[in-house]
């Protein structure tokens, strides 16, 4: 009952938000050059769908590729610094420095190296999304209970045995939680690079639309990005709930 | 129980015969750190533990009891002297070792049954048999063991569904599933209430009488030591030395009622006085 009510309120808030937007635009006579009404944006979305569709696929594809590479990079680095104290102490300062660079600043450099287009977009989404994965994997691996490690070592377990039987499964909730965050970051990276240096993708569509004062189209792009972002987040939340249910089920009543 | 009997036992190490030396500390000392920051955890100590013996280590906190346990497990190396386990240098895995701590450390993503079977995935010769047909036999063995500690009905439950006492029973099962010749227990019942603790003394005593592994038990509870052990060593404050080493002669199986009889109470008093003076000596 409580959950149904929560859901209902959430839906009401979203509907109310768009209704208020529509009504205020009409009531205050806001020009659609400044802020188009949601109904206009929706109409633009439908009318321009054939044009927007390939751009959306481009953005989605670039994001997923950058994300996949980011996950791979994050997994490897996270595993290495999570298992080895020495690697952790050695590499952490560099990683912190690297992650604190505003990622917009690296796009021109990628363009310099690889030209404009898909490659800098993939690389930007990679560098922006791998860090949360590194941190979560490393934390998950480093927090194995020392007593359990002693029990297993006394059995003659190798480091690999412990990693396989304890470290990796224990890290899964951290890993999947970080995937949700990382996929959203990867998305930001792609759009960022597309707006700066690409002639394809939603980011590019929005830049072109804004220089043509085609404001409804720019907003249509924004809506597509929001939709994609929500869909990706939801997809990885679902995977997380499936794979690491054991970590979130503790609230059920004990025997 | 038939399932256990039908499984091939690993070839017995020489030290498996009752009475042979299972653990020998030869003038073994442990110091953590170096230079001025060095902390002597264990003063040079000589101690023999025979196979099948149940030895309890008692003493003030921080006196090096757990250090001796870790030496026997091969988890740390002595700074000087030698530690021989099963006739070989500690850590050489001459004996199969089972270990249990106060924290049951069950893996939350596995059922109790699979948690208990974890050592079989790691220790030879079980490990290489695990994938093949042996799996059902292993499960039967886990069930038999869980049955013995009264947890048979909970084999398919997850750790968060069990109480602290139940988890500690499962922890004992996990420490015993691979038929260790040496069982190392570090305050296994320290976090439990008194009634659960006394109940588990009985469980542990039965398991020991059944299998007769060599047991090294670290505890703060003098009644626990008197109930379970065949021999009690009292240690001094840090750096630990063995102050007193005496056998406990009460007949087995022992009962909780026995712990209130005059002989038992006077043993407790004697141990207590030794520890109190050891603590005073360090202050």
- Overall average pLDDT of chain A: 87
State the distance separating the first and last CA atoms of chain A.
25 Å
Architecture (CATH level 2) name of the largest domain in chain A: Orthogonal Bundle
Shape of chain B: globular
Structural class of chain B: alpha/beta
Judged by helices, strands and strand pairing, the structural class of chain A is: mainly alpha
The outline of chain A comes out as globular
Number of helices of chain A: 11
Number of spatially distinct domains of chain A: 2
CATH evolutionary superfamily of the largest domain in chain A: MetI-like
CATH homologous superfamily annotation of the domain at 52-64 and 179-282 in chain B: P-loop containing nucleotide triphosphate hydrolases
CATH names the topology of the domain at 52-64 and 179-282 in chain B as: Rossmann fold
Main pleated-sheet profile of chain A: none
- Poorly predicted regions of chain A: 250-255
Low-confidence stretches of chain B: 1-16
**Radius of gyration from the alpha-carbon trace of chain B, in angstroms:** 19 Å
The run of helices and strands of chain B is HEEEHEEEHHHHEHEHEEH
The radius of gyration computed from the alpha-carbon positions of chain A, rounded to a whole number of angstroms, is: 23 Å
At CATH's second level, what is the architecture of the domain at 52-64 and 179-282 in chain B? Answer: 3-Layer(aba) Sandwich
Keywords (chain A): Cell membrane, Membrane, Transmembrane, Transmembrane helix, Transport
Domain ABC transmembrane type-1 (chain A): 56-234
Transmembrane segments (chain A): 65-88, 94-114, 121-142, 174-196, 217-236
InterPro entries (chain A): MetI-like, MetI-like_sf
């Amino acid at each position: 009952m409580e959950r149904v009510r929560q859901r209902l309120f959430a839906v009401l808030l979203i509907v109310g938000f768009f209704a208020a937007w529509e009504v205020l635009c009409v009531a205050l006579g806001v020009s659609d050059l400044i802020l188009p009404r949601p109904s206009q944006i929706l109409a633009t979305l439908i009318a321009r769908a054939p044009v927007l569709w390939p751009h959306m696929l481009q953005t989605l594809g670039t994001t997923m590729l950058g994300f996949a590479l980011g996950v791979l990079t994050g997994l490897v680095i996270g595993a290495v610094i999570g298992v080895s104290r020495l690697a952790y102490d050695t590499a952490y300062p560099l990683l912190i420095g690297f992650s604190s660079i505003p990622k917009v600043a690296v796009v021109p450099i990628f363009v310099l190296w690889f030209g404009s287009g898909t490659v800098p977009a993939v690389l930007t989404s990679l560098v922006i999304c791998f860090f949360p994965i590194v941190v979560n994997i490393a934390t998950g691996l480093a927090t194995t209970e020392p007593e359990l490690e002693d029990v297993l070592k006394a059995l003659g377990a190798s480091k690999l045995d412990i990693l396989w039987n304890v470290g990796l499964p224990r890290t899964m909730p951290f890993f999947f939680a970080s995937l949700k965050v990382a996929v959203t970051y990867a998305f930001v990276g792609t759009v960022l690079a597309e707006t700066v240096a690409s002639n394809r993708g939603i980011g590019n569509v929005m830049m072109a639309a804004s220089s043509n004062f085609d404001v409804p189209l720019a907003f249509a792009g924004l809506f597509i990005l929001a939709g994609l972002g929500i869909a990706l987040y939801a997809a990885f939340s679902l995977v997380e709930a499936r794979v690491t249910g054991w970590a979130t089920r503790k609230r059920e009543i004990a025997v | 129980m038939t399932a256990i009997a039908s499984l091939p036992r690993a070839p017995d190490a020489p030290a498996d015969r009752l009475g042979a030396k299972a653990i020998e500390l030869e003038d073994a000392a442990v110091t953590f750190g170096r230079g001025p920051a060095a902390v002597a955890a264990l003063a040079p100590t000589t101690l023999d533990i025979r196979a099948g013996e149940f030895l309890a280590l008692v003493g003030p906190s921080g006196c090096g009891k757990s250090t001796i346990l870790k030496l026997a497990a091969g988890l740390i190396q002595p700074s000087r002297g030698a530690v021989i386990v099963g006739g070989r240098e500690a850590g050489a895995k001459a004996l199969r070792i089972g270990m249990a701590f106060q924290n049951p450390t069950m893996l939350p993503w596995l059922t109790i049954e699979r948690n208990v079977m974890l050592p079989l995935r790691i220790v030879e010769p079980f490990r290489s048999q695990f994938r093949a047909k042996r799996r059902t036999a292993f499960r039967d063995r886990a069930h038999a063991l869980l049955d013995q500690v009264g947890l048979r009905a909970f084999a398919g439950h997850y750790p968060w569904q069990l109480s602290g006492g139940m988890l500690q029973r499962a922890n004992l099962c996990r420490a015993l599933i691979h038929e260790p010749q040496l069982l190392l227990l570090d305050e296994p019942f320290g976090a439990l209430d008194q009634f659960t603790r006394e109940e588990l003394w009985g469980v542990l005593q039965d398991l020991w009488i059944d299998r007769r592994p060599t047991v090294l038990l670290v505890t703060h509870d003098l009644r626990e030591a008197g109930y379970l052990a065949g021999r009690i060593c009292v240690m001094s404050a840090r750096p630990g030395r063995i102050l007193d080493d005496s056998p406990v002669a009460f007949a087995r199986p022992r009962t909780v009622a026995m712990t209130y009889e005059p002989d038992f109470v006077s043993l407790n008093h004697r141990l207590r006085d030794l520890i109190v003076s050891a603590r005073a000596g360090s202050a």
